[in-house]
C-alpha cells in the first residue's frame, strides 16, 4: 500500500494509471473505518484495477457548533485495516493543502441540498460537494463508492457529477448494520453504553414505517405519528426529522405509492445519527 | 478541423490525446470571434500539441434582463476563421446537454465574484465558473487561454482552478484593441456608428488614469473625478463603475503604489462594455 500525501503526486499517479489502461476505484472517507467503509473497499477491489482510499476529515462540511475537532481519527488502526485489504493507494492529504486559509470556491447543488439534513446543517452538503469534487480532480477515478446510509449525500453527488460533466460513475452500496440493526457510523463511538442501547430505536422506527407502508397503510400522517411516538418513548433522543420522500428528487411524498425513501435524523447524547430505508408501497 | 458536439466523444478524444503524451490547449469562447479570440488561438497553437476551441453561448451567465437571445452567433464565419487557423477540434455542444432543464449544480468563487462586475451582474461569475468547470471536465485541457479584457473573469477562474485542484494552467493574454484603442468585444457589434465613436472615451479614460497615476499623482479621488468627468462629457454613456484595485485580490486600493488595476464598465446604447489597464504607480 502506497501512501500519498502530495496532491500533484496523486494526480500524476492517477494519470499514469489510467494511461496504462487501468481503471481506478475510489473510496473517499473521513477515516475511523468500520465495516460500512470496508464493504465499499471490497466493492472497489472487485470493480476496478486499482483502488485508492482517501482519509480526510473535511473541515468545511462541519458547522461551527459541530464535531470537527472531536471527530475520531484513529489513523494507525485505519492504516492497518487498509493494509489488510491490500489497497493500492491511501491518499492522505493535509488540511492546509485541501482547504488553505483563503479557500473560497464552493460547489452547491441547489434544491437537493436544502432538504432533509440540509435544514439542520445548512453548509454541510456544500462542504461535501466542494471537497468531493476537489478529490475527483486529484484522484481522477473511473468509479467512486458511497454508502446508502448517507442517502442524501450520494444522491447529491450523483447530481453534481451529472450536471458538471465529471466522467465518473458513482456506485452506492447498501448500509451495513450492527448485529441489532443500528446503521454503522463513525459517530456511534460518541454513544455511551446506555445511549448505544437506546439508539436501536431509530432502526426499529424505520422498520415500523416499512411494515406499515408495505402492508398497505396509505395514511402517511398516521404512520409518521406512530414513528414519532415510538422514538419519543425513549428518553434522551431528540428527533430532527423523519420523512417519506421520493428516492430521486427527495421531495416529500404524501401519496404512498411505489418506491419510497423513509429517512430520519436524531440527536442522541453528543451524536447526530441518520438512517434510512427504501420501501415498496403497494 | 474536427467538429465534436457530443460530450462523451469530446471526453474520449481528450483522454486518448493526453494518453498519447500530447498536451491540449483549450480556448473557450461564446463565438462571434474577433482578433482577441484569435490571439488566444495562436497562443494555444504555440503552447500545446492539440488545440480545442469551444463555441457556446452560456445561458446561465446572462441575467434575466440581459442579452442572451440577441448575443451574436455568426457560426459559419466563426467556423471559417477556425478552419483557417487550422485548429484540431471545434467543440460545439448543444445547450440542452450543457444546461438541461433540471440543471442545479453551481460553482461560486466567494468574494472575488461580488466585486466590480459582480455588483451589476450578481449571477454572472457563478454562471461562468460553473460552465467553465464543466468544460474543463469534458475537454480535460493542460492549458486554457483567456483574454485580459475580462480581467475579473480570469482572476476568478484562476482562483477556482487552484481551490478545486484542477490540473490546468490558465494563461492570460493581453487585450487586443481596435485601431483607436477600443477593446475588442463581440458586444461592440451592438453599437451604432455614433456610439462606436463615443465608445473610445472608455479607453481614453483609462489612459488618463494611467497617465496621472504613473506621473505620481497620489490623490485617487482627484483622478477618479477627472475620469468620471471625462466619461460624463459624452452623452449616451452611463458609467457603471471605475475602480483602482489590487490586481490579485481585486480589493479597491486607496494608496496608489505598485501595480494597480484600473477597471471600468459602462453602458452605451444596448451594450455593456468593460475595459481595464494594469498601471505602475511610482
From TrEMBL, chains A, B:
It is found in: Cytoplasm. The keyword ATP-binding applies. One of its GO terms (molecular function) is ATP binding. The keyword Cytoplasm applies. (R)-pantoate binds at residues 61, 153. Pathway: Cofactor biosynthesis; (R)-pantothenate biosynthesis; (R)-pantothenate from (R)-pantoate and beta-alanine: step 1/1. Its EC number is 6.3.2.1. Pfam families: Pantoate_ligase (PF02569). ATP binds at residues 30-37, 147-150, 176, 184-187. One of its GO terms (biological process) is pantothenate biosynthetic process. SUPFAM superfamilies: Nucleotidylyl transferase. Beta-alanine binds at residue 61. CDD domains: PanC. It comes from the Bacteria. GO terms for cellular component: cytosol. It catalyses: (R)-pantoate + beta-alanine + ATP = (R)-pantothenate + AMP + diphosphate + H(+). The active site is at 37 (proton donor). Belongs to the pantothenate synthetase family. Homodimer. HAMAP family: PanC. Catalyzes the condensation of pantoate with beta-alanine in an ATP-dependent reaction via a pantoyl-adenylate intermediate. The reaction proceeds by a bi uni uni bi ping pong mechanism. This is Pantothenate synthetase. The lineage of its organism: Bacteria, Bacillati, Saganbacteria. The gene is panC.
Amino acid at each position: 500500500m502506497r501512501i500519498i500525501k502530495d496532491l500533484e503526486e496523486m494526480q500524476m499517479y492517477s494519470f499514469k494509471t489510467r494511461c496504462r489502461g487501468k481503471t481506478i476505484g475510489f473510496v473517499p472517507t473521513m477515516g475511523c473505518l468500520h465495516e460500512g467503509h470496508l464493504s465499499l473497499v471490497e466493492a472497489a477491489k472487485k470493480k476496478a484495477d486499482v483502488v485508492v482510499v482517501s482519509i480526510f476529515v473535511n473541515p468545511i462540511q462541519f458547522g461551527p457548533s459541530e464535531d470537527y475537532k472531536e471527530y475520531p481519527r484513529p489513523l494507525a488502526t485505519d492504516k492497518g485495516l487498509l493494509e489488510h485489504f491490500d489497497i493500492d493507494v491511501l491518499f492522505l492529504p493535509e488540511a492546509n493543502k485541501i482547504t488553505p486559509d483563503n479557500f473560497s470556491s464552493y460547489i452547491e447543488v441547489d434544491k437537493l441540498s436544502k432538504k432533509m439534513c440540509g435544514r439542520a446543517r445548512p453548509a454541510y452538503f456544500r462542504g461535501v460537494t466542494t471537497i468531493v469534487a476537489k478529490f475527483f480532480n486529484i484522484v481522477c477515478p473511473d468509479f467512486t463508492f458511497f454508502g446508502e446510509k448517507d442517502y442524501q449525500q450520494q444522491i447529491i453527488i450523483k447530481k453534481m457529477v451529472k450536471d458538471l460533466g465529471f466522467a465518473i460513475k458513482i456506485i452506492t452500496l447498501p448500509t451495513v448494520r450492527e448485529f441489532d440493526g443500528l446503521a454503522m457510523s463513525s459517530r456511534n463511538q460518541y454513544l455511551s453504553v446506555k445511549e448505544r442501547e437506546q439508539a436501536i430505536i431509530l432502526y426499529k422506527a424505520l422498520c415500523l414505517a416499512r411494515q406499515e407502508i408495505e402492508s398497505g397503510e396509505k395514511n402517511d400522517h398516521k404512520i409518521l405519528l406512530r414513528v414519532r411516538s415510538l422514538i419519543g418513548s425513549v428518553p434522551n433522543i431528540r428527533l430532527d426529522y423523519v420523512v417519506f420522500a421520493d428516492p430521486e428528487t427527495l421531495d416529500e411524498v404524501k401519496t404512498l405509492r411505489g418506491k419510497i425513501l423513509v429517512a430520519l435524523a436524531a440527536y442522541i447524547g453528543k451524536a447526530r445519527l441518520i438512517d434510512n430505508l427504501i420501501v415498496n408501497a403497494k
